Amino acid sequence: MFTYTLRRLLFAIPTLLIISFVIFALLDLAPNDPTGDLPLTIPPEVREQIRASLGLDQPFFFRYLYWLQQFFINEPLNILERLTGWQFGDGSRMRVLSWATRSPVVDLIVQRLPQTLWVVGLAYVFGVLIAVPIGVISAYKQYSIFDQIGTFVSMVGYSVPTFFTGVLLVVIFSSYLQWFPSVYDTNLVVNDFSSFLQQVKQMALPVTVLSLFNASQITRFVRASMLDNLHQDYVRTARAKGVKEKSVLLIHVLRNSLIPVVTVIALGVPTIFSGAIITEQIFRVNGLGQLLIIAVQGADIPLVQTLTFIFAVLIVLFNLIADVLYGILDPRIRYD
Predict the structure, then answer these.
(1) For 96-133, what is the HEC assignment?
(2) Distance between CA atoms of 245 and 260, rounded to whole angstroms?
(3) Which residues neighbour 76 within 8 Å (Cβ) at sequence distance 6 or greater?
(4) CB atoms < 10 A from the CB of 44, how many?
(5) What per-residue string of b and e applies to 142-158 under the rule 16 or more CB within 10 Å gives b?
(6) pTM of the full structure
(7) What domains can you pick out in the chain, each with its CATH number?
(8) With 0-12 CB in 10 A as exposed, 13-18 as middle and 19+ as buried, what is 121?
(9) What is the pLDDT along the chain (336 residues), one digit of tens a residue?
(10) Within 10 Å of residue 178's Cβ, how many Cβ atoms?
(11) How far apart are CA 180 and CA 166, in angstroms?
(12) Cβ atoms within 10 A of the Cβ of 194, count?
């Protein structure tokens, strides 16, 4: 397993380099100009000076190599300096800067990340915790009332878009009942029980919307996978040997059924870090999804490039984690 993991990590290096080149090239070749939003009264020579100050007067390949140096060398060294307090070099290394704010892109991401993890991450955890038991019970009690209700709710939750569900909950619970706030206050500081309750209230609606959507998707996979394994020969053999039904269901059937589900869950984890763009816009959550929208609208190419590449890294990483979990769940799968 260790050899396989190491080999996959080494193979991921050229994969990520190719992905980074494609992302950089596509965004660089897009018809976006950082001086496009400037007043028309600015002379052309001033516009060229602004472009030169942003490094846009350099050839494409040199800008790409410079971005690689900033992302893979300068930014990790800066993070190590912050974590350890040690000084690497003179500390004047150039970082990836946002065109709009002239602030380091990584600092902007770190500022928005906690909001996204609290809302989107918690919703994903709740979605998984809700989906697995519902999927197991629905499959075990196929065609029962519980199964029919669970199937109906999951189909509705997965089919209805989050922008409709979010607006519906805002109308009912914020405007009509006034139980929860409709706007997420990102400046709220939790320092006592009262502020904690306020934080829970403002998280309730966005977390509910995303939890319903995530749970609806995962429930269908768990139920279908459980139905495929419930009628296998090894299940009948375990029952014939007198194994308790609870052990058959939770140890034998569920463990094998989680193999395809792990793929869905693992590949869904990167969406936590990318943020829920639509839901964050509805509830005004100041997260990474909203940051990406602002960057796209403002033609802030360095910020868009960095965010997109980080999402690609997370997808490659959690693909590897899913493959490793296959070997843990199923002893028949061996990589070495």
Answers:
(1) CECCCCCCEHHHHHHHHHHHHHHHHHHHHHHHHHHHHH
(2) 23
(3) none
(4) 8
(5) eeeeebeebbeebeebb
(6) 0.78
(7) 1-336 (1.10.3720.10)
(8) middle
(9) 667 777 777 888 888 888 888 888 888 777 666 666 666 677 777 777 777 766 777 777 888 888 888 888 877 777 777 777 777 666 667 777 887 787 888 888 888 888 888 888 888 889 889 988 898 888 888 888 988 888 888 888 888 888 888 888 888 888 888 888 888 777 777 777 888 888 888 888 888 888 888 888 888 888 888 888 888 888 888 888 887 878 888 877 887 788 778 888 887 777 776 656 777 777 877 878 778 888 887 778 888 888 888 888 888 888 888 777 776 766 666 655
(10) 9
(11) 13
(12) 9
Distance CA 294, CA 159 (A): 28
Q: Residue with structure tokens 């040997």?
A: 241
Q: At what angle do helices 162-169 and 193-230 cross, to 10 degrees?
A: 140
For tokens 């829970």, the residue is 200
Token pair in block for residue 142: 């196929």
Q: Is 265 exposed, middle or buried (0-12, 13-18, 19+ CB in 10 A)?
A: buried
